[in-house]
Amino acid sequence: MPSGVIFRGHISQSPPPDIADALAHAASRLGGFGRQFIWFSEITSTNDAVAMLADAGTAEGAVVAAEAQTAGRGRFGRVWHSPSMAGLYLSLLLRPATHATPLVTIAAGVAVSEGIEAATGLQTSVKWPNDVNSGGRKIAGILAEAGTSTEGVQHVVLGCGINVMPSAYPPEIALRATSIEGELGRHVDRGAVLAECLAAFAAHYERLHNGTHGEVLHSWRRRAAPSLGRRVEWDANTVVRRGVAEDVDDHGALLVRTDAGIERVISGEVRWI
Rounded to whole angstroms, how far apart are CA atoms 217 and 211? Predict the structure, then answer.
């Protein structure tokens, strides 16, 4: 790990022993992820830090993780609350092939769900496009941000926030959020959660590249079973559209059955009714 990395006044440091030991134990399953692992006790945003690495030409697979974020964000610029010692906040630098890019978020959702289960035994579900849930409440979120470096090289910054321990969330979030320890009622090894999520993503990311993305989609559909079949609504050209979420296609778009037939939803906010 590089030492002395500075990001907006915060200096990187060696990861805590539980994180370092778990990464070392899982090293053979991480592929290229984690070879460059940068840890901060506090940072504004791990996604912003990885974007800077991308601009500097850093190789794919770099990971930035933090104990806390002061400006973490979710989709549409929403605040992602990242209290210290309560979760895992990390971002990965990806340089995916064009055919793999549309399914990166789908693969990440499956990986986080699988990683949490492998490390703790807790079974979770995924909900399009970027939520990992337990008992209908959000336990993790994913944010993929595409960008182009100053040299014109494209990349994707894949961010993930995982609620490990219960925390005092703002009222508007408290009813919709949960944590791994809150669901299990016991302590969990956060290092194992981090390492297993990275290992699962490395495996699925390889599948996206080698042409076996059908396995990724199959895994996503199985874990999305609690949400598929539910009614949804979304905004399309200032008109509210409604239907029943049925599936995702080979490009990761949500397929919704409406009165007019099947419609593809590829972006925007879907509200689950």
Answer: 12
